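stage 2 :: seqdesign
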């Protein structure tokens, strides 16, 4: 995942809301949202990276949740292990987040942000192997080779920098989620998806003077600054959008997979992801049973 906003314990009856986009190279083989089993037999609902076998966001019927983003770093060689295995490691485990963090060898992975949750225990945390360069880091705990902290109830945003780093697209998606929370003081607003989808599908790039500085070329920073990334020149972009809504006894997950309408062409920059051709999937996960799925037409925005 490259853009996530999530609300923990902010809406009565709904301990978790997530809105997220996954950005990835277009040629990287990927399976969409579906039910599958982890190495130890734990059932999970998630998309799946067919290259390395892991995932970027998943939920289990036992209430375990994990979300991953990369940390954008220029000129840093890839580490040997896939970051997606951190997500599956948490999902198939039973330990608390602190013990899990102590078992992570930070040097084996390129820069990552990992949000860990347990809907049954009501526990949430963020861990990373890149200490934030700015802001208040006093609350971070050293946990072996990573740092992290527990997360209280609230609304959070995450892209390719530390948790709640105020990149324009992160702020935009957080504000959309806040609008849902503010209108849901007693029950979740009936149209809660609409502002979140509008924010996730926004292709408007940030102003030049608002771009982050991560060491990447400025043209890259510009292209990656919109919530919905469409960087055809690099054969890279938003591959899918996901909404998650948890209640007391189930988790609903809705995914829009954004397909190109033409094969990759090294000389063309005109192919895009028309949303009319996006594939919609919905999974409903019982906290005491296996998930059921349904496909249908995308919601209109």
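stage 2 :: out
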């Amino acid at each position: 995942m490259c853009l996530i906003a999530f609300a923990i314990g902010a809406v009565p009856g709904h301990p978790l809301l997530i809105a997220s986009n996954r950005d990835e190279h277009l040629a990287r083989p990927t399976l969409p949202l579906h039910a599958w089993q982890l190495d130890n037999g734990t059932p999970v609902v998630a998309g799946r990276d067919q290259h390395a076998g892991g995932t970027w966001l998943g939920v289990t019927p036992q209430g375990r949740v994990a979300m991953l983003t990369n940390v954008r770093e220029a000129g840093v060689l890839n580490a040997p292990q896939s970051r997606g295995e951190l997500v599956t490691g948490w999902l198939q485990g039973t330990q608390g987040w602190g013990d899990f963090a102590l078992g992570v060898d930070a040097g084996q992975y390129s820069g990552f942000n990992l949000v860990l949750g347990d809907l049954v225990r009501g526990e949430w945390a963020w861990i990373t192997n890149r200490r934030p360069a700015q802001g208040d880091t006093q609350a971070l705990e050293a946990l072996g080779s990573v740092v992290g902290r527990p997360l209280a109830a609230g609304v959070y945003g995450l892209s390719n920098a530390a948790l709640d780093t105020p990149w324009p697209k992160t702020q935009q998606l957080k504000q959309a989620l806040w609008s849902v929370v503010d209108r849901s003081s007693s029950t979740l607003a009936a149209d809660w998806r609409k502002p979140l989808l509008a924010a996730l599908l926004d292709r408007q790039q940030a102003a030049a003077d608002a771009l982050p500085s991560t060491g990447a070329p400025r043209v890259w920073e510009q292209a990656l600054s919109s919530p919905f990334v469409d960087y055809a020149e690099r054969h890279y972009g938003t591959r899918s959008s996901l909404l998650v809504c948890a209640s007391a006894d189930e988790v609903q997950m809705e995914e829009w997979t954004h397909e190109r309408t033409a094969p990759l062409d090294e000389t063309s920059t005109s192919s895009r992801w028309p949303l009319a051709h996006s594939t919609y999937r919905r999974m409903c996960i019982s906290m005491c049973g296996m998930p059921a799925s349904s496909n249908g037409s995308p919601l209109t925005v």
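stage 3 :: structure notes
- The first strand starts at residue 3 and ends at 11.
- The chain has one domain: 3-296.
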